[in-house]
Amino acid sequence: MNNQSLKDISSPTRTKEIISKYGFTFKKSLGQNFLVDQNILARIVDAANLREDEGVLEIGPGIGALTEKLAREAGRVVAVEIDQRLLPILRDTLSVYPKVTVIHGDVLKLSLKEIFDQHFAKDQPVSVVANLPYYVTTPIVMKLLEEKLPLKQIVVMIQKEVAERMTASPGGKEYGSLSIAVQYYCEPSVELIVPRQAFVPQPNVDSAVIKLKVREKPPVDVDDEAFFFKVVQASFGQRRKTIANNLLGSFFQKGQRELLESILHSLSIDPTRRGETLSLEEYALLSNTLHKRL
Ligand code: SAM
């Protein structure tokens, strides 16, 4: 370990010093598990492979452990933190990194488009890199994807189990509407598994760093995205039910079972299959057909 990393915000001694200097107490309700493992932090930043002209949006900087490492690699770092108590701490710990801007707010409520317009250049590649608060992982990732921000990639620490759901293939129990939404917008890959000992306080679950490379265009043609996602949601409505029974309840009147079954047969989808066995391509085909016929 060199001198610099001994003094880094994330080193266990410096983290302890900062926390006691400010009398900071962790709020479980805000998912506050801070990273104190230099090696893991370095690997997150490596996975993002940032260039010095690029921008980074960090969600939840905490006391600035990851922010500092991002500031050393990227051209501009904007970090959104919900906890007012962390703002004076961040002003102190990040004072030597003028390229960092900290914004106080709830990432789920802020207009990210405005943040992008104000802080990043028009053609600047922007990555989201963060150790996400676990209680809101899925809403945050879905907001980033659905708002169609001009993002290059999302490299985030999340619960291992959620990472498995995001990368799951059809057929398994992890595969669901989250897998489909993420894979529709991105190419996901698990970059590293992180043991709970890398954090203070330690979370109750293991974690993973996932990289979501945002696609230029989805891998399937969908006529109406909102309808496509409704079909997907409905198909997983009750996992033990067949695809026909789930769709029947949501899109058809009583007595239309035959119509639905004939549509499914025309697409070579057996009505007794379950939602978790259909591929992204099959969902696209199904939603485009239902959209035309209903
Ligand atoms: N980046 C730091 C690290 O790696 O040590 C802290 C990560 S900690 C897992 C999550 C951070 O997200 C906390 O600082 C927490 O206060 C913040 N946070 C929680 N909910 C948030 C929200 N809705 N919007 C913005 N920040 C949030």
Can you offer a commentary on this structure?
The model has no long low-confidence stretch (mean pLDDT 96). This protein folds into two domains: 12-214, Rossmann fold, CATH 3.40.50.150; 225-293, rRNA adenine dimethylase, C-terminal domain (Helicase, Ruva Protein, domain 3, Orthogonal Bundle). The strands form two sheets. The protein has a seven-stranded mixed beta sheet with strand order 4-3-2-5-6-9-7, sandwiched between helices. A two-stranded antiparallel sheet has the order 1-8. With 294 residues, the protein is of the alpha/beta class. Helix content is 41%, strand content 18%. The longest helix has 14 residues, at 280-293. The protein has 13 helices and nine strands. Bound molecules: S-adenosylmethionine. S-adenosylmethionine binds at residues 30-35, 59-62, 65-66, 80-83, 86, 106-108, 131, 133, 136.
Question: Briefly, what is this?
Answer:
By secondary structure, this protein is an alpha/beta fold. Helices cover 41% and strands 18% of the residues.
In total, the number of domains comes to 2
Structural class category: alpha/beta
Count every beta strand, where a strand is a DSSP E run of 2 or more residues: 9
CATH class designation of the largest domain: Alpha Beta
Helix content: 40-55%
CATH fold call of the largest domain: Rossmann fold
Strand order of the largest sheet: 4-3-2-5-6-9-7
Distance between the termini: 64 Å
Q: So what's the overall shape? A: elongated
Radius of gyration: 22 Å
Low-confidence stretches: none
Average pLDDT taken over every residue: 96
CATH superfamily of the largest domain: Vaccinia Virus protein VP39
Beta-strand percentage range: 15-25%
The number of helical elements comes to 13
Order of helices and strands: HHEHEHEHEHEHEHHEEEHHHH
* The CATH architecture of the largest domain: 3-Layer(aba) Sandwich
What oligomeric state best describes the polypeptide chains here? single chain
**Unique bound compounds:** S-adenosylmethionine
